[in-house]
Amino acid sequence: MRTAIFPPKHPRLREYVQFFWTLSAKQDDAPCSIIGPEAYFDVILSFAASTVWKSQKQQRFALRGSFLSGMRTEPFEVEAQGNVEYLAIRFYPHRFASLAGSPLAEITTLHAVELDALPQKSWTELTEKLADFSDIPSRIAALERELLAMLDRQTPARSWLVERALSSIHKSQGTLPIRRISAALDVYPKRLEREFETHLGVTPKWYSRIVRFSHALNYIQQPSDVDWGEIVYQLGYCDQSHFIKECVEFLGRSPEQCRQLALNTQ
User: Fold this and answer.
1) CA gap 199, 105 in Å, rounded
2) What does the UniProt keyword field contain (predicted)?
3) In degrees to the nearest 10, what's the CA dihedral of 44, 81, 72, 104?
4) Number of domains in the chain
5) Rg (the chain; Cα; Å)
6) Entry pTM
7) Which carries the bigger pLDDT value, residue 179 or residue 260?
8) Is residue 19 domain-shared with residue 143, that is, in the same domain?
9) Taking CA 33 as the corner, what is the angle to CA 133 and CA 203, rounded to the nearest 5 degrees?
């Protein structure tokens, strides 16, 4: 299995795209992985396999082509059916609303949706247009041109409240209480919540929890021994039982099992 990350080259795209990533694998090495809740949007262009998603409640659904992965609110087991060849776009969450063509709350609820189902038909044509390019650099260059053309046709949907709140959440690694963020922005928490649900499809509290848990996963996937008490302290969890509860809710596993999962997917 081969993976790689590429930063966007065009300055305008850097406001919207965090990076492009690729994944390729033969059928015998095709990944089957557990993915937890995430605080970003990925448009995944598939040039080969379909995927099957299974929730903790044993609900299954198949994605037969390219798809959009939204802000997931629960863990899923994802299995590739055959050879895998992905080229994906990792969007900043507060920028993706300008290009989605669909309410972000709907995408978050669905967890993943085939691009054919989105009202913005430009997404549907991307995979077909890029399939003619045989190498990754050419595909990414063509993809950047397509994204710039899409931006020219869209009216930017931005919220200064959401952008400033996101900055505070990420700087604090998700540990800053939402009431303090709201006070710093001089708005009521309910207004901030409405802005988040409109532009991201989730509440600021949920987003903060995911950011904090993502940082916890970064800590525990280090090869050295883990100091669980230090992680709990650094990330502001009430106690170890609180952290254990988050691990079970977000990945359906104990902290040690989450650590092994993170190490195995590096």
Assistant:
1) 8
2) DNA-binding, Transcription, Transcription regulation
3) 40
4) 2
5) 19
6) 0.79
7) 179
8) yes
9) 95
